[in-house]
């Protein structure tokens, strides 16, 4: 979420005499040091300024109930800060030029949490996503907000270790069960056959199918496990359904993590809330 519209308007207050300000100024009359400002749209800021721009620690309150408290640099959220969103969600962590970037924790409105690395406002790098409703959690790599790369999907009494691609498990991996066994195999992406009457319509994506290779006792982590995380060229074949539920069946009552309402639904909702707020702020100040 960005308060860029308000920042642009506030940066010109000294020249245009827009809004109210009470606090320190420099020799040229610009806001400098500690001060309080109220913008025409009802937003307020209290904190540090440097030569007319918000720089240092401060608290910005939005008229819609959102609040940011943390570091600023030249009117941008930059450094450490906490953002409380109108729907009750919260982000606490690193910011770079108004973007969630670095390391931080996001508490979603439904109680789900993500703790890990961020880039350009998206989950990116290593991180852990915990689903509050079931207690399951994804621990591993993210790319542009999507589960992608080596990871573990941990449930109450078992877990899956392997690779994910575009939010779905794919390639070699294994299920590890608390009863003392492991199921090795691979996820195969089935190829959908096109019917003649549906040639003009793109086929719906099919869920990967788990193909079992063997069941063993628990084994310690080794270099062989590292090989599980590297897909082999030319691997494939007709998939067979395993006797033990797959990651897709076992997670969230059959829902796949990419389509989980607590994660991607929250992300979409968050973007809509952010955009509505930014649009409103820009409207309040005439763009």
Number of strands: 17
Please identify the structural class as seen in this structure. alpha+beta
Give the percentage of residues in beta strands.
Answer: 35-45%
The number of helical segments is 5
Q: What is the rounded distance between the termini?
A: 17 Å
User: What are the secondary-structure elements, in order, as H or E?
Assistant: HHEEEEEEEEEEEEEEEEEHHH
Silhouette? elongated
Q: Biggest β-sheet, characterized? A: 17 strands, antiparallel
Report the radius of gyration as a whole number of Å: 25 Å
Provide mean pLDDT, rounded.
Answer: 79
Low-confidence stretches: 1-17, 231-246, 248-287
Proportion of helical residues: 10-25%
What does this protein look like?
By secondary structure, this protein is an alpha+beta fold. The protein has 5 helices and 17 strands. The protein has helices at 4-11, 13-16, 223-228, 247-250, 261-284; strands at 20-25, 31-38, 44-50, 53-61, 67-73, 76-84, 90-96, 99-107, 113-119, 122-130, 137-143, 146-154, 158-165, 168-169, 171-177, 181-188, 209-217. The protein has a 17-stranded antiparallel β-sheet that branches. The longest helix has 24 residues, at 261-284. The radius of gyration is 25 Å and the shape is elongated. The two termini are 17 Å apart. The model is unreliable at 1-17, 231-246 and 248-287 (pLDDT under 50).
Key structural traits:
elongated; alpha+beta; disordered C terminus; 287 residues; 17 strands; disordered N terminus; 17-stranded antiparallel beta sheet
